Each structure stands twice: as structure tokens, then as C-alpha cells.
Amino acid sequence: MEKIRQLVFSLGIRSTYQGFHYLCYALTLCMQNEDYLLSVYKHLYTDIALHFGVSRDSVDHCLRTVVSVCWDKGNREFLNELSGYCLTQRPTNGEFIDILYHYLITH
């Protein structure tokens, strides 16, 4: 979990955002079961929402916020490095989680 927190923090996403905690938990779940990547909204968000006692839409919104923070104010250069190619537009929540997940399993 500490490796995940450090990765998210290094992207410029601070723990003052609720989405920081949702993202860390999402990556933890994906590390345990890669199938979550195939159904982000329906299964991954549902399990995050249950864990934190919030709605699935709240999870979606908070994750969208931290992806935007990373893209607009964070370490976009590092995000490009993680993805392995130059991102020309802000990734979706699912793409963002997928990029971080694949980085974590290969490093």
C-alpha cells in the first residue's frame, strides 16, 4: 500500500483529496484482482463505494477530480513516463487506473 501511496503522491495528487484515498484503494483492489480493470464503473467503483460508505457516482466524481489535478497541476511528465507514450489528452478514470496498475505490476 505504501508503494501505491508514494506513486499517487509523486503524480502531484495530495492526500487532502478524497479521490486520493479512492485511487489508492482502487489500485489495491486491482492488484488483488486484475478483472476489476474490465468493469471499472460497475464493479470497481461499487466496491470502493461500499468500503468508504459513499455512492458510486461520488467515487467517479472524486476520481475524475484527481485525474484532472494530475493533468492540470500535477506531474504530467511523470504520467507520460508511466504510460510509455505521450498522452495528448487527459486520460479517463479507467485509463488512468490502468496506467498506474501496469506500472505497479512491472516495477
What is the domain tally? 1
Secondary-structure element string: HHHHHH
Radius of gyration: 13 Å
Supply the CATH architecture: Orthogonal Bundle
Query: Whole-number average pLDDT?
Result: 96
Number of strands: 0
C-alpha termini separation = 14 Å
What name is given to the CATH topology? Arc Repressor Mutant, subunit A
Indicate the proportion of strand residues. Answer: under 5%
Q: Can you identify the CATH superfamily? A: Winged helix-like DNA-binding domain superfamily/Winged helix DNA-binding domain
Indicate the topology.
Elements: H1 2-10, H2 18-32, H3 40-52, H4 56-72, H5 76-83, H6 93-106
Helix pairs in contact: 1-2, 2-3, 2-4, 2-6, 3-4
Can you characterise this structure?
There is one protein chain. This protein has 107 residues and is mainly α. It has one domain (2-106): Arc Repressor Mutant, subunit A, CATH 1.10.10. It is 71% helix and 0% strand. α2 packs across α6 (93-106) and α3 crosses α4.
Brief descriptors of the model:
107 residues; mainly alpha; Arc Repressor Mutant, subunit A
Give the gist of this structure:
With about 110 residues, the chain is mostly helical. It has six helices and no strands.
